[in-house]
Amino acid sequence: MTELTHDGTRRTVETPKGTLHYHEAGEGPPLLLLHGSGPGVSGWANYRDNLPVFAEHFRTLVLDFPGFGKSHSCEGNPMAAALPAVLDFLSALSLDAVPVVGNSMGGNIAAQLAARHPERVSRLVTIGGVGLPVFSPSPPEGIKLLVQFVEDPTRARLMAWMESMVYDTALLTEEFVEMRWRAASDPAALADIRKLFNAGSLAAMRDRGPGAVAQVELLTSIRAPTLVAFGRDDRVTPLDSLLVPMRLIPKCEVHVFPDCGHWAMIERKDEFESVVLSFLLRDLK
């Protein structure tokens, strides 16, 4: 397949709340990929290496949430703006039910979309981002390091956070780190990420009660066939978090990637693509 570049695949669409930026490649049934949160993140940063493989089978759409990448900024918490933006995006492109793959925050938003708007999601794949830590302490290490970076955004603190995201730190090449640092140190990007990760968000994570109730309600409302994927060595959403969605989502299956942190789509690229494509293509054969 022809090499897919950032500029060659980038698109924009106007919505009532502002311009949404996304990448598009491939033909066939649509597939929506939703990225995670964190300094310097974007749809391209999360899925650029997976895009060619998914584009062989799907019209693959990689969205930047408001406050991330090149989509419009948002006045409040980017988490609150994300689900309405996805709905606006699907409507702007005249898309009905689509399979959705989401990493971390993207998995959480994809799960919300499936639970609250079941007519919009035909199949759901989450990579971390859903569930409740049953045995692990909260907040987890990765989130604490993320907040430390947000409070004092140095390259060293960014590197410490990124090392918590992976099992094998050799993946953090100079090119990859520099890409994330350039994006993460942008003043506008920092302003948006501070709305999401701060001392208040850490305090909310320590108080598990309200979040646990909301998560159980969310998971039991999902009706789409669901694949819950986790890295065995995830230090952001620990592995024991998968026990709750595995039991509560009616049509749920689970895959655990060994020697893998929070970024399964990057760290276990080939296996991730094989597992997810097998799940997504099941209905299409």
Given as residue ranges, the uncertain stretches (5+ residues, pLDDT < 50) are none
Helix and strand string, N-terminal first?
HEEEHHEHEHEHHHHHHEHEHH
The fraction of residues in strands falls at 15-25%
- What CATH calls the topology is Rossmann fold
Query: Which word captures the global form?
Result: globular
Q: What's the architecture, going by CATH?
A: 3-Layer(aba) Sandwich
Q: Which structural class is indicated by helix and strand composition?
A: alpha/beta
How would a textbook summarize the main sheet? Answer: 8 strands, mixed
According to CATH, what is the class? Alpha Beta
Radius of gyration: 17 Å
GO molecular function: hydrolase activity
Protein name: 2-hydroxy-6-oxonona-2,4-dienedioate hydrolase
InterPro entries: AB_hydrolase_1, AB_hydrolase_fold, Epox_hydrolase-like
Biased composition (Basic and acidic residues): 1-14
Provide the fold topology.
Layout: H1 6-9, E1 10-15, E2 18-25, E3 30-34, H2 43-47, H3 51-55, E4 59-63, H4 78-92, E5 98-103, H5 105-116, E6 121-127, H6 141-151, H7 155-165, H8 174-184, H9 187-196, H10 199-206, H11 208-220, E7 226-231, H12 243-248, E8 252-257, H13 264-267, H14 269-281
Parallel strand pairs: 3-4, 3-5, 5-6, 6-7, 7-8
Antiparallel strand pairs: 1-2, 2-4
Helix pairs in contact: 4-5, 6-7
